[in-house]
Amino acid sequence: MGLGDRHQKKDVEAALKRAERAGLKVTHDKNRHRWGWVICCPCNDFVKVHGTPQSQGNEANKIDRFTESHRNCA
After folding, report:
1. What are phi and psi of 28, to 5 degrees?
2. pLDDT, tens digit, for every residue of 12-71?
3. What letter would DSSP give residue 5?
């Protein structure tokens, strides 16, 4: 992720960094409501990351759960 690709919510940004450290791919696509994706390349599973989530804590938890469940794939 480049510097301009940071998520504006700090809890979500921290979860995205944890996902990258776990070996998952984080992509930013600048869609209206969707900030981007967290992708597990070996199994091709992914989770959508909202740009303006109703709850940044819930969005971060969703990313963390995905990261944990795909830690062994990466």
Report:
1. -110, 125
2. 999 999 999 999 999 998 777 899 999 999 999 999 999 889 999 999 999 999 999 998
3. G
